[in-house]
Amino acid sequence: AQSVSQHNHHVILSEAASLELGCNYSYGGTVNLFWYVQYPGQHLQLLLKYFSGDPLVKGIKGFEAEFIKSKFSFNLRKPSVQWSDTAEYFCAGMIYNQGGKLIFGQGTELSVKP
Amino acid sequence: EPEVTQTPSHQVTQMGQEVILRCVPISNHLYFYWYRQILGQKVEFLVSFYNNEISEKSEIFDDQFSVERPDGSNFTLKIRSTKLEDSAMYFCASSEDKRTDTQYFGPGTRLTVL
């Protein structure tokens, strides 16, 4: 069965530290991949997405993610976090051309200390 | 920027009662989705809806659940006879074109079944 897993449950960083959140998916075919963010009290917002092409995708607020097909991974990175990045981050996958169903990872809570 | 809206933000109901959760998708979007997140668990897909019919549904979406687009702007999720285990955050999402696959989420309705 298709699944998405995120390795880190809760990450605590100081401002200006670099961030990498892990995401792995299990599916052998074509997958579209997404990172969503949920700031406290707000709804899920799209950070970035990968459909095809350049495996390094850039999103909003300085985030980027790299799709590594051989590792079934789509890790999220940011070189220097800010306090305002405190939020929950969700990786999600969608089987290409199949109904639009998003399969979510369990989420990673990021706390950035000022 | 257009947003998906959901009402109510919090619904408390007694076990066995019917509830209707409401969503107003973004106006030019054609695909609609419901997801839920039980506290401490992953966001799970429930159902997708296009052209006035269900495109795909998960195993969770049993006969107790139904969806409807009653008037061209609202998209509703009905739970006929709520159970304790239906307590969760319910998210509505919409997308313009399934192929672009970017889903925009509402803020969620927290359903508490007592």
Describe the structure concisely.
The complex is a heterodimer of chains A (114) and B (114). By secondary structure, chain A is mainly beta.
Q: What features would you describe in this structure?
A:
The complex is a heterodimer of chains A (114) and B (114). Chain A is mainly beta and 114 residues long. Chain A has strands spanning 3-5, 10-14, 19-21, 24-26, 31-38, 45-50, 56-58, 64-68, 73-78, 87-95, 103-104, 108-113. In chain A, the strands form three sheets. In chain A, strands 2, 5, 6, 10, 11 and 12 form a six-stranded mixed beta sheet that branches. In chain A, a hairpin with a 4-residue loop joins strand 8 and strand 9. The relative contact order of chain A is 0.33. The model of chain A has no long low-confidence stretch (mean pLDDT 92). Chain B has 114 residues and is mostly beta strands. Helices cover 0% and strands 50% of the residues of chain B. Chain B has no helices and eleven strands. In chain B, the strands form two sheets. In chain B, strands 2, 4, 5, 6, 9, 10 and 11 form a seven-stranded mixed beta sheet that branches. A four-stranded antiparallel beta sheet of chain B has the order 1-3-8-7, with no helix packed on it. Classes of the chains: A mainly beta (114), B mainly beta (114). Chain A binds chain B through residues 32, 34, 36, 42-46, 49, 51, 90, 92, 94, 97-107, and chain B through 3-4, 31, 33, 35, 41-45, 48, 55-56, 58, 91, 93, 95, 98-99, 101-108.
